[in-house]
Specification:
Elements: H1 12-19, E1 24-27, E2 33-35, H2 39-44, E3 49-51, H3 52-74, H4 83-102, H5 110-126, H6 134-143, H7 158-190, H8 199-236, H9 242-276
Antiparallel strand pairs: 1-2, 1-3
Helix pairs in contact: 3-5, 4-5, 5-9, 7-8, 7-9, 8-9
Amino acid sequence: MADANEPLYENASEYIRHHLGFLTYGKKPDGSWGFAETQTQAAEMGFWSIHVDSMIMSLLLGCIFLGFFLYVVRRATSGIPGPMQNAAEYLIEMVQTNVKNTFFAKNELIGPLALTIFCWIFLMNLMDLVPVDWIPMFAAWVAQDPNLYFKAVPTTDLNITLGFSLSVFFLMIFYSIKIKGLGGFLGEFAFHPFGKWAVPFNVLLELPGFLAKPVSLALRLYGNLFAGETIFLVIAIVGYVQLPLHFAWAVFHILIITLQAYLFMILTIVYLNQAHQKPDEAH
């Protein structure tokens, strides 16, 4: 944690700015490839760059999620279950209940997809509860670079949240065309809600709402987690007084990280249910 008596940075603003920076790899303005030395240089790399820290943490947490369920499945018992089996069964039952109550078509992908989204996003969000200096300081120690940029919370990276939401968006399009046909899919924008005589007006009404779905999914998750991380950083600059403040905000933030993972999961189920509904089945 940050110590106000031994500051690592010249001022609080620099401390927060550094912790909000990404470890970016890409093509530098001079044409060479490598890691950005400053966030200004990272911004100049443009589209063909990657946030290495976000990818490392995302893949690591994905492996933890898979490893947990693999461990539970291999040691599952029909007798008295252990704590880990209880936790896994609770998560599966929670997802099954939500899928049953929200998804009215038949698709074996929806359950595993919903479970993956909830658990993976929850683990990413959970990194926000780790004291803000611990993981970046460990990464700096491994890299032997005290000025290393490293963000530990993948869902504070808009690229990650957009990646999740665009994946759901493409699944929506895929299943809409598969279930309704290309004509039926396009007809939803052209002929609803006012029929074929108002095609331009129908498209004007329907298309923005459809395109807003992935944007709202991504921005809701990103905005809440980014705000939470920023508050933790503000708390961290006050020195040892931060301990009770950090605890109080962390307790409240547990609700936020869980709720955001749940909302992303439930909206995914709702959107895919809409994609499976034919026009005469819509409510």
